[in-house]
Amino acid sequence: MKRLVVLTGAGISQESGIKTFRDAYGLWNTYKIEEVASPVAWERNPQLVLDFYNKRRQQLYEVEPNEAHRTLVALEKTYDVRIITQNVDDLHERAGSASVLHLHGELKKVRSTADPDLIYPINGWELKLGDLCEKGSQLRPHIVWFGEQVPNIAPSIELVEKSEIFLVIGTSLKVYPAAGLLDYVPADVPIYLIDPEAEPQYYMPNLTIIRMKAKEGLAEFVKLVSARFSQSL
Q1: In Å, what is the CA distance from 166 to each residue of 14, 34, 161, 177?
Q2: Short-list 135, 131, 101, CA closest to 116
Q3: Over the stretch 22-72, which tens digit does the pLDDT of each residue have?
């Protein structure tokens, strides 16, 4: 099986009803980054930060994986599919994907403020002040905030370097270090970008742009990649 490495972003979850951050009705139009998604915000107003992520977690329990998530699962019959996601939801896992690496954390997990290696699944959707880890320190969302290191970037780079097909779905490619993963795709590996608003600066010799939303774009990707690799056999 060829190894298909997939980088997913907010666009794939948007089709399940989850708000993105940068669209016209996105989360950053309601909240400022510095208020809810940084270590400084946590120190200044932890209750506001908890409220923000509690609302996002509550919404996550109300949505389901969509056809794009399920298509990626179906591709596992033909390809060795490895997903790297910028999303903090669990829709890939709930759809049945076997290999998912979260770059920016996971909404349904919390971690210790004293020891970042103490990570726990959260029961329900609400995390409160006074909820403590086994060492007695406050629990916080298991989210990589702006200004924090991205622990999973190194294993993500290793996956990308071993890719035989590289697929990008539903991300603006404006958030680093995730956007920098394209620099590690081997020179002879075909890259496919599914994005209805793909910008010209993403043109590369081995890049195919599919200007569609995730569901339709994945259906087109399946046709293109099937034809390409059947001809090369």
Answers
A1: 21, 33, 10, 17
A2: 135
A3: 554 455 556 777 789 999 999 999 999 999 999 999 999 999 999 999 999
Torsion sign over Cα 24, 71, 108, 40? negative
Helix (H, G, I), strand (E, B) or coil at 161: helix
The residue among 174, 229, 173, 231 whose CA lies nearest residue 1 is 229
Q: Cβ distance 119 to 108 under 8 Å?
A: no
Query: What is the Cα Rg of the chain in Å?
Result: 18
The tens digit of pLDDT for each residue in 128-187 reads 999 999 999 999 999 999 999 999 999 999 999 999 999 999 987 878 888 899 999 999
- Closest by CA to 5, choosing from 67, 71, 72, is 72
Q: Give dist(CA 86, CA 150) in Å, integer.
A: 11
Tokens of residue 84, six digits: 């790297």
Is 160 buried (19+), middle (13-18) or exposed (0-12) by CB count in 10 A? buried
Would the pTM of this model clear 0.90, i.e. be above it? yes
CA distance 65 to 78: 21
Q: What angle do CA 177, 37, 59 make, to 5 degrees?
A: 105
Cβ pair 168, 10 in contact under 8 A? no
Q: Please identify every residue annotated as catalytic.
A: 104
Enumerate domains of the chain plus CATH numbers: 1-18+65-104+150-233 (3.40.50.1220), 19-62+108-143 (3.30.1600.10)
Q: Look at the chain and count its residues.
A: 233
